[in-house]
Amino acid sequence: MHLDRMSTSATYFDFVFDQQETLSRVCRFSESFEQGKLYQVRLLLSVDGEIRLESCEYAPDRWIGYLKLSTERTFSGDIFLQHQTSHRQMYEREYAEARAIGFDEVVFMNEKDEITEGASSNVFIRKSGRLYTPPLFCGV
């Protein structure tokens, strides 16, 4: 699903993208992982179709559940929020500031006061046994 989303974004931004070749590269890349360990992988695509893969061992922080509501607002019409891009400066800055003062995550709202997402996580609401997330048009 991530590669499908990347394909959609690549088409929108007119990036060269070969989904099958990318999947093959990711599979080959994962062969170097030590068995029994978890890894976090970052896949970067340049406009000319060049793929860069990065990884690190996944070591989740201890989650207490302390959330900070950011004073920075997102804009629901920001096209970059509807695509997974490297335009993350505000998210990274706000996350680092929140972590430095003891919070686990920082949550953002858009200009309409709608909760959209966390800097490093998604927002889910459980209602009547179903999970809901904010719709893309909110600027997620």
Give me the Rg, rounded.
Answer: 17 Å
Chain oligomer state = single chain
Order of helices and strands: HHEEEHEEEE
What is the count of β-strands?
7
Shape verdict: globular
Which residue ranges are poorly predicted, with pLDDT under 50 across at least 5 consecutive positions? none
Instruction: Determine the fraction of residues in helical runs and give it as a percent range.
Output: 25-40%
Structural category is alpha+beta
| Beta strand % | 25-35%
Distance between the termini: 17 Å
Question: What's the main sheet like?
Answer: 3 strands, mixed
Tally of alpha and pi helices? 3
The overall pLDDT, averaged over residues, is 93
What is the topology, as strand order, of the major beta sheet?
Answer: 3-4-5
